[in-house]
């Protein structure tokens, strides 16, 4: 799930101290060795530094998502989605140290599943991290996208390690998603998750349905048992049909963002990037291929950097996380002209890595300017170093698709 900047009350929670469909076409071999890259190596150094900010070694922990700036004071908050991405980024390179770090985050997720207000397989949207031997709850809600990305990362960790505890943890997340968000009403598919008070979120999201579709697919090919009363094929079809049959705008050649609380009226107020790129990465077909072309023109961000904005609501700057997502999708689509755009986008991200506002030469900033509006209420992105943007750059640079078996 995309993470906007929101703030919530911090509630302490003591825990033990030792506390990511095959693509239609890929430009590179997923398993080919990666040539040495200083920007890539530096991006990993940033993730290492952020992961070791409060604890190191085998201590189970999550990673603070942002480096605070004068315009964005957000120390200590670890968004679950961002941490799933960091885990996947470590799997993408897979050095011995990377695998240790991936396991630390994966084990922290498993522990936090058991620490949910009602242990039922889910994780929460975000947590509070500090030098104390505890992780605090920041947002008790469980948006389906955040939960699904955690399951996806755990399932991919299982595929790299063959450690059944990660498959079991991912399967428990899928069980929670099916039990609490699956619907046959309206457009069908899966609804938005739970609020902090464990009440159902009744609107639905194309992005979230893409996320759970990928989770179900990875669990299916990994040999996990489907949730009781369902088959993986049925669940994959429900999420895919929601996106392909109900969210596709044939005239505009892009995907809508989701539906209202009746799950039968399309939400046309927001046209985001991630639904387009994730749609192709998870469900490569003629529709999702066309939506990438729409993104590269309709969402082109202004300013000194080449790339895309978050949505059509504000194209005054570049959203580097989404630019990396589209870069990866274009690499895998590999149509005429895609290689040129890939080179431009990667060069732009790597330039911002060194020269962007608040750059440190290692991490990737979330946006090229402060206050880049998403179009979703008052939510905005800032030019702050961000583990999520850095992880997506790492995946794009190495042509690693988190929605397909890694």
Layout of helices and strands:
Layout: H1 38-51, E1 77-79, H2 80-93, H3 96-114, E2 126-129, E3 135-139, E4 142-143, H4 144-161, H5 164-181, E5 191-194, E6 200-205, H6 206-221, H7 232-246, E7 248-249, E8 254-255, E9 258-259, E10 266-267, H8 274-282, H9 286-298, H10 320-333, H11 338-355, E11 364-365, E12 372-373, E13 380-381, E14 385-386, H12 387-397
Antiparallel strand pairs: 1-2, 2-3, 4-5, 5-6, 6-9, 7-8, 9-10, 11-14, 12-13
Helix pairs in contact: 1-12, 2-3, 2-4, 2-12, 3-4, 4-5, 4-6, 5-6, 6-7, 6-8, 8-9, 8-10, 9-10, 10-11, 10-12
Q: Could you please describe the fold and organization of this structure?
A:
- The protein is an alpha+beta fold and about 400 residues long.
- The protein has one domain: Alpha/alpha barrel (Glycosyltransferase), CATH 1.50.10.10.
- Helix content is about 45%, strand content about 10%.
- The strands form five sheets. A five-stranded antiparallel β-sheet has the order 4-5-6-9-10. Strands 1-2-3 form a three-stranded antiparallel β-sheet. A two-stranded antiparallel ribbon has the order 7-8.
- β5 and β6 form a beta hairpin.
- It starts with about 35 loop residues before the first helix and ends in a 9-residue tail after the last helix.
Label the CATH architecture. Answer: Alpha/alpha barrel
CA radius of gyration is 19 Å
CATH topology: Glycosyltransferase
Oligomer: single chain
Order of helices and strands: HEHHEEEHHEEHHEEEEHHHHEEEEH
The CA-CA distance between the termini, in Å, is 20 Å
CATH class: Mainly Alpha
